[in-house]
Amino acid sequence: MRETTAIFKDGRRITTRVSRFGERPDREFDIQFWQGLSSEARAKAGWELVADYWLMKGKSEDELRLQRSVESIQRGGR
Fold first, then answer.
1. Is 65 strand, coil or helix?
2. 51-59: long-range contacts (C-beta < 8 A, 24 or more apart)?
3. Tell me: the pLDDT tens digits for 23-66?
4. For the stretch 40-50, what's the b/e string if a residue is b when 16 or more beta carbons lie within 10 angstroms of its beta carbon?
């Protein structure tokens, strides 16, 4: 397996790992990648997967918004 890292002028860092066909790499590379991201970046990536799946099902991305169907809430008598 070969791993390379490129660092760009704007500070972006891209690391790639190449393995031979049929070789089963360990998951350490993936674990390091995801743990290196902030929780906000992981949440954003998760949301992008949900949105992509939703679009592949032919549904509108607007349907993924929070439902606002409750008109009013009244507290019961005490």
1. coil
2. none
3. 887 888 888 889 989 999 999 999 999 999 999 999 888 888 77
4. eeeeeeeeeee
Q: What residue numbers bound the domain in which 45 lies?
A: 2-61
Domain count, the chain: 1
What residues contact 54, with CB distance under 8 A and at least 6 apart? 61, 63, 64
Plot region of 62 (φ>0 → left; ψ -120 to 50 → alpha; else → beta) = alpha
Q: Which residue in this structure is represented by tokens 């993936």?
A: 30
The encoded tokens of residue 17 equal: 């790992």
